[in-house]
Amino acid sequence: MPKFQRGNVTLYYELDGSGPPAVYISGFGCHSNDLIGTAIRQSLSPQFTVLAVDNRGAGQTITGEGDSVTIEDMADDIAAIMDHYGISQAPMLGVSMGGAIAMTLALRHPQKVKSMVVAVSLAWSQTPSRGIYMLTTSRKMRDAGIPRDLISRYTAVFLLSENSFEYEGLMQAWENSPEDPFQQTQQGFEQQLSAITRYDIRDQLCKINVPTLVMSSPDDLLVPPRLQDEIAKGIPNAEIKHYPGGHAFMVLPMYSPQFFQDVLEFWGRHFG
Prior knowledge:
Elements: E1 3-6, E2 9-17, E3 21-25, H1 35-44, E4 49-53, H2 71-84, E5 90-95, H3 97-108, E6 113-119, H4 130-143, H5 148-159, H6 168-175, H7 186-197, E7 212-216, H8 225-234, E8 239-242, H9 256-269
Parallel strand pairs: 3-4, 3-5, 5-6, 6-7, 7-8
Antiparallel strand pairs: 1-2, 2-4
Helix pairs in contact: 2-3, 4-5
């Protein structure tokens, strides 16, 4: 199993595919082998050697009990594994909190970021907020032993757009998706929640000097679209595209082809 020891943290990661290196950075509670991570790695690996690190507080990465976790820690973790493999520079794809990590990487290690796609992300976390409330509620439901299919029905409400519910087959698949063997622990939830609620780089966006595509969804209930659009306004020369589908639009069959097409096209334009 691919692991990397950094201090007292054992980082789990996946490195697969062929071609030039690229980095996928997962969001809150997500990891390299969940539904989104697997779909992204499988779609990009025919053209790229994709590095995907399980962030602290998620997946198979192991942190110490009571350890504090920051977005900066997670960005530095990725930079350390890139150094380990001699990856001097790579295009980045960060989804949700992964976009925050990608932007922090571009600030702390700008030489490592060739270009970046930042999807349904944010430059700061308003606290308290509806998004934090919904994440915390879904965690409380899991801790209370609520059946997984009912939790899936609840998360669909804030992760998918209204028109998604018109597709009965899609909703049944969402509701009956298999249990994640590496689902986030209570400790991991608290660590990542603390990291995202302390995160604010609004005054540093102007210092990011790498080609950036912001993918924003006006249907997103988890991360307000105004916060997504704010990134494009703050990063010099950033591009922005808007997508239907909500926070998880990139895994919906009606929107995922366009998502991957745009990622590859943007990376291709800024390959040199």
